[in-house]
Amino acid sequence: MPRPDPEAVAEAVFAALAEPTRRSILSALAARGPMTATDLASQLPITRQAITKHLELLSAAGLVLAEPGERRRIRYRVNAAPMAMAMAQSYLAALSRDWDGKLARLQRSLDAPAPPPEGTDSTDGMEVGADGASAGGA
Q: Is residue 18 one of the residues assigned to a domain?
Protein backbone atom coordinates (compact mmCIF):
# COMPACT_ATOMS: atom_id res chain seq x y z
CA MET A 1 0.00 0.00 0.00
CA PRO A 2 1.55 3.33 -1.02
CA ARG A 3 2.27 5.87 1.68
CA PRO A 4 -0.09 8.87 1.56
CA ASP A 5 1.25 12.21 0.36
CA PRO A 6 2.30 14.08 3.54
CA GLU A 7 1.31 17.43 2.05
CA ALA A 8 -2.22 16.21 1.23
CA VAL A 9 -2.61 14.62 4.67
CA ALA A 10 -1.45 17.81 6.42
CA GLU A 11 -3.88 19.83 4.30
CA ALA A 12 -6.79 17.58 5.31
CA VAL A 13 -5.87 17.76 9.02
CA PHE A 14 -5.45 21.54 8.99
CA ALA A 15 -8.70 21.99 7.06
CA ALA A 16 -10.50 19.80 9.58
CA LEU A 17 -9.03 21.69 12.55
CA ALA A 18 -9.59 25.13 11.01
CA GLU A 19 -13.28 25.14 11.95
CA PRO A 20 -14.06 25.92 15.61
CA THR A 21 -17.06 23.56 15.71
CA ARG A 22 -14.92 20.62 14.61
CA ARG A 23 -12.36 21.48 17.28
CA SER A 24 -15.19 21.52 19.85
CA ILE A 25 -16.39 18.11 18.67
CA LEU A 26 -12.86 16.70 18.84
CA SER A 27 -12.39 18.17 22.34
CA ALA A 28 -15.70 16.69 23.53
CA LEU A 29 -14.75 13.25 22.20
CA ALA A 30 -11.30 13.46 23.78
CA ALA A 31 -12.73 14.50 27.16
CA ARG A 32 -15.78 12.23 27.35
CA GLY A 33 -14.90 9.24 25.19
CA PRO A 34 -16.91 7.67 22.35
CA MET A 35 -20.27 9.31 21.56
CA THR A 36 -22.94 9.30 18.90
CA ALA A 37 -23.85 12.37 16.86
CA THR A 38 -27.01 12.61 19.01
CA ASP A 39 -24.91 12.60 22.20
CA LEU A 40 -22.71 15.36 20.81
CA ALA A 41 -25.72 17.40 19.64
CA SER A 42 -27.09 17.38 23.19
CA GLN A 43 -23.84 18.95 24.42
CA LEU A 44 -23.08 21.41 21.65
CA PRO A 45 -25.19 24.22 20.18
CA ILE A 46 -25.53 22.54 16.78
CA THR A 47 -27.95 20.08 15.15
CA ARG A 48 -27.29 16.37 14.92
CA GLN A 49 -27.23 16.60 11.11
CA ALA A 50 -24.54 19.30 11.22
CA ILE A 51 -22.55 17.27 13.77
CA THR A 52 -22.70 14.28 11.42
CA LYS A 53 -21.28 16.36 8.55
CA HIS A 54 -18.44 17.59 10.76
CA LEU A 55 -17.74 14.05 11.99
CA GLU A 56 -17.50 12.82 8.39
CA LEU A 57 -14.84 15.43 7.66
CA LEU A 58 -12.94 14.64 10.89
CA SER A 59 -13.11 10.95 9.99
CA ALA A 60 -11.87 11.59 6.44
CA ALA A 61 -8.91 13.50 7.93
CA GLY A 62 -8.13 10.48 10.13
CA LEU A 63 -8.79 12.30 13.40
CA VAL A 64 -11.83 10.30 14.54
CA LEU A 65 -12.95 6.72 14.02
CA ALA A 66 -16.53 5.58 13.48
CA GLU A 67 -17.52 2.38 15.29
CA PRO A 68 -20.79 0.53 14.81
CA GLY A 69 -22.84 0.49 17.99
CA GLU A 70 -26.11 -1.03 19.11
CA ARG A 71 -29.28 -0.54 17.05
CA ARG A 72 -27.38 0.76 14.01
CA ARG A 73 -26.02 3.73 15.93
CA ILE A 74 -22.52 4.87 15.10
CA ARG A 75 -20.25 5.92 17.92
CA TYR A 76 -17.32 8.18 17.20
CA ARG A 77 -14.06 8.30 19.11
CA VAL A 78 -10.77 10.13 18.79
CA ASN A 79 -8.25 8.17 16.77
CA ALA A 80 -5.65 7.33 19.44
CA ALA A 81 -2.80 6.89 16.93
CA PRO A 82 -3.66 9.01 13.94
CA MET A 83 -1.03 8.81 11.24
CA ALA A 84 -2.60 12.00 9.90
CA MET A 85 -1.73 13.96 13.03
CA ALA A 86 1.84 12.63 13.03
CA MET A 87 2.25 13.71 9.40
CA ALA A 88 0.83 17.16 10.18
CA GLN A 89 3.23 17.45 13.13
CA SER A 90 6.14 16.53 10.86
CA TYR A 91 5.04 19.20 8.42
CA LEU A 92 4.93 21.80 11.22
CA ALA A 93 8.32 20.68 12.56
CA ALA A 94 9.91 21.10 9.13
CA LEU A 95 8.32 24.51 8.76
CA SER A 96 9.55 25.44 12.22
CA ARG A 97 13.11 24.36 11.39
CA ASP A 98 13.06 26.53 8.28
CA TRP A 99 11.94 29.56 10.25
CA ASP A 100 14.07 28.92 13.35
CA GLY A 101 17.32 29.50 11.46
CA LYS A 102 16.05 32.64 9.76
CA LEU A 103 14.66 34.08 12.98
CA ALA A 104 17.89 33.28 14.86
CA ARG A 105 19.94 35.13 12.20
CA LEU A 106 17.58 38.09 12.44
CA GLN A 107 17.87 38.10 16.24
CA ARG A 108 21.70 38.05 16.05
CA SER A 109 21.59 40.91 13.57
CA LEU A 110 19.31 42.93 15.84
CA ASP A 111 21.44 42.19 18.90
CA ALA A 112 24.73 43.16 17.20
CA PRO A 113 26.02 46.69 17.86
CA ALA A 114 25.23 49.07 15.06
CA PRO A 115 28.23 50.15 12.98
CA PRO A 116 29.11 53.85 13.25
CA PRO A 117 27.63 56.05 10.51
CA GLU A 118 29.91 56.62 7.55
CA GLY A 119 32.14 59.65 7.89
CA THR A 120 32.46 59.43 11.68
CA ASP A 121 35.41 58.34 13.79
CA SER A 122 34.56 54.97 15.32
CA THR A 123 36.28 55.88 18.61
CA ASP A 124 34.31 58.97 19.64
CA GLY A 125 31.55 59.35 17.06
CA MET A 126 32.86 62.74 15.87
CA GLU A 127 32.86 63.54 12.20
CA VAL A 128 36.23 63.36 10.50
CA GLY A 129 37.21 65.76 7.72
CA ALA A 130 39.07 64.84 4.54
CA ASP A 131 42.41 65.66 6.19
CA GLY A 132 41.65 63.33 9.12
CA ALA A 133 41.04 66.17 11.61
CA SER A 134 37.84 66.37 13.58
CA ALA A 135 35.36 68.69 11.89
CA GLY A 136 33.91 69.93 15.15
CA GLY A 137 37.26 70.46 16.96
CA ALA A 138 38.99 73.75 17.98
A: yes
Task: Return the exposure string of 43-68: e unless at least 16 CB atoms fall within 10 Å of the residue's CB, then b.
Answer: ebebeeeebbebbebbbebbbbbeee
User: Within 13 Å and on the Cβ side, how many CA atoms surround 74?
Assistant: 12
Q: Please give the model's pTM, rounded to 2 decimal places.
A: 0.63
Structural domain harbouring 62: 6-83
- C-alpha 17/C-alpha 30 separation (Å) is 14
Our measurement of the distance from residue 75's CA atom to the centroid of its chain's CA atoms, rounded to an integer in Å, reads 28
pLDDT recorded at residue 129: 58
Furthest CA-CA distance within the chain: 101
